[in-house]
Design goal:
mainly alpha; 66% helix; elongated
Length: 104
């Protein structure tokens, strides 16, 4: 019997290598970024097209405040909403490009 401590027994299964751990950890943020890019693109496409469709003026919000109905029908307001949609599309495209540049 010795007074020096003995090392603890190691488990039968070996832990994953650091590269495998990094790969599985890096897949989740990539998937989230891809989902974010798809969602942002869809919202941007909707905001770009919907203000110019006829159903735009027959929604809940235009009848909710009749005093603001003239603003709702204003082409400049519709253009501002379309501009927000184009910004969303730009952000989605930039995110996809950044995602594929880092995967190389």
């Amino acid at each position: 019997m010795s007074l020096t401590p003995e090392p603890a027994p190691t488990p039968a299964s070996t832990p994953a290598s650091p590269t495998e751990t990094r790969r599985s950890a890096s897949r989740t943020p990539r998937l989230l970024r891809l989902c974010f890019a798809i969602f942002t693109f869809e919202i941007g496409l909707f905001l770009t097209v919907f203000p110019w469709v006829e159903i735009w003026s027959t929604n809940y919000f235009s009848g909710w405040l009749p005093a603001l109905e003239h603003i709702w029908e204003d082409p400049y307001f519709r253009g501002a909403i379309t501009g927000l949609g184009l910004v969303n599309i730009y952000v989605a495209c930039a995110e996809v490009l950044r995602l594929f540049r880092r995967s190389d």
